[in-house]
Amino acid sequence: MRRRLGTKAMSAFLAAAMTVSMFPVQALANDEEPVAQVDADGWVLQRQSTDTNVELQEGWIVPDEDGNGVTIDYGKIVNDTGNEGWVVFDSDEPKYKDSSLEYDITFSESTQGDWIAVAPATRVTDGKNYEGFAITNGTGLERTGRKDGSESYAGIDNLLGLKFEYDKTYHIRMETIGSNITVYVTRDGKEEKLTSFDSPIGLEESTYGFRIWRGGKKITLDNIERTEIVTSDLDRDVEQIEADRWGTEDISVPIRFGNGDSVVSVYNGDHELILDQDYAISDNMLVLKKEYLAAQGGNFRLQVNFEKGSTAALWVMKIDLSEQEEYIWTPDQGIDMWTQMEGNGTFELQEDGMRVTGRNVLVNELAPMAVNGEIEVTFEFLDDDWERDQKNHGIGTLFRADQTAGTWQSLAVDGYVSSTPIWKFINSDGITADFALDGDVLMSRDGVKDFKIKQRFENDSITLWMDDQVVHSQGINKAESVPGNMGIILNGDLGDILVKKVVFRQLNPLQEETGERQTTSISNDDLTVNLDQDFPRVADYELNGKTMNGSEIRYNYVTINSVNMPATAEITEQTSDSVTYHVIPDSEQSGVTFDVVFRVLEEQTVEMLITDIHEPEGELVNSIGLPKQPLISANSAQAGAKLDASWVSKPVNGWGIRDLHETIADKDISTTAPFAVAIPIITTDELSASMFNNVYLDGDEFVYGAFNLPDGEMSAGFWNNEFMYRGLDGEKVLP
Question: How far apart, in Å, do the first and last CA atoms of the chain sit?
Fold first, then answer.
């Protein structure tokens, strides 16, 4: 029996609606003549939401003679009791938390048409506590369960579009690890993933069974096989080593062992590493020897195999912070580099692009391997049927894809509310997280203008652009920082697009300036602003002997059309109350230049302007900014340091204004996932400050984030989001 072990489990809470036939609790129908209780080899029957066993009657639950199957006559149970809604489980089975459960299952003798209305449960304690997935009607699937009698259910993906039918036998396998349940179906001798989801029920050691409802039917099981999964794992999936340290020292990664487990082997591809020569296991640590590391030319993937059957992967990556790999795909290169990881759709080369139709999870094998990166997709919608678009084409970007493990992450459209796309984080385990209910309507522009969507994935942070304008930026705690390939995704069956260009870019962290800080000052109306001499950046503000911080960490970068690039600057003009910088981005990345002016106005106000934007021929500026350079901030060592903001929440069930309040000394603000807001405020016991701008991004005008300081303290502050300089029509929005 095949297993796919070592799956990381994460939490997701979904909401949907389902119609359930509920009936009043009734006593068993009284027979004229009592019938002796039937022995069913440990199988137990309880009403849903109760924990009381019901005496079994002849023909209700009939185990096979070989002990490896059972037939449940739900129609007879309903007829004899007058009640619907039952939970059936095998009380004699060992109790496992994590398990692999498989069997052949046949549904027969329906009294409710095509309705199956059966929920295989991989964990059952009693009728009040169970969790699994429900087969409803047609291709409908739901996650379902109860905890202490309280029911939870929601729709989940049917990745195969499979319709379960009566009088057919299906072989299904359910793998339950932590909160994640993945279901496989074998068709034509091939095991395929039917669905994967996160269950919010969270039961511990349990047996298995079913919840059954809605009309008469028989459920027949055969070839039941159930084994415990003991999960061991590594503490992290990636070890990044700077090029100048490669092979100079051993590296150690903590191991989380399951009960009684141990490491049996470590492989690099087909090559098995030698214990105590290439690696060692010591004090629950995997120690990779520096000599083995030095013998490897670059990135490699280790697979650690554990005695109890689980596996763990460790990517060891050599990083050169001075280089950033990029690959641009265009149709003239063909499509041999594109590989379908999942989906029943098609992709083919046409004269002016790659046509992608139906569900496709596509990896480009020439794209750089990346933990953090950017993907820009230029495409045209070929389907202009708005009703079909509403059902979900699922356009999005694919990242951190591991073809060996069959895992991937994505940001994709997952339906619409009216004309507004619902963007969600989605991964290969079926786990989703809301990202934004925002962005332009995704339908054909009839050849007038192509769409361009871009996604940046950095640690647990995701940012989305459409047509070079920011849509939203936020952290996704379900986004795992693991290396992988990049690609595109159509996660709906009705997608039909023509892909014309895709840019894949490896993303290195911004490099901090470390030299001695040299500042210059401007002032007016008792307010002094100290700015860096080498870049347009505020160091701090002084007012009546009190101080408000600007940027404590220095990054000499600019953002042009959503791409961060190094830049230099020089002061070209200065007066007592103003200073002008001329900014020159890296010439290999852009020919654009511009000025930044700081001016101290009356009433303790500072104005910052981006002016005199020079665009070389063929390079128009759609958006421009100065990334991760707070204009106001405070740190955890300052008394009363607080960060407050208002932001536009954009959930599926309606927009609204939300406030957030952070005490910086608590050090709870993310250093990896900047968040976009509308109103920013920084306060200390000495001063308070806020900002206004003309970024025009519908509630995402400012970004806040935190930075670790060398002394162990944390700085947190706000900076401007990217300014929209031109709109979709190419006309300037700002003067």
Answer: 67
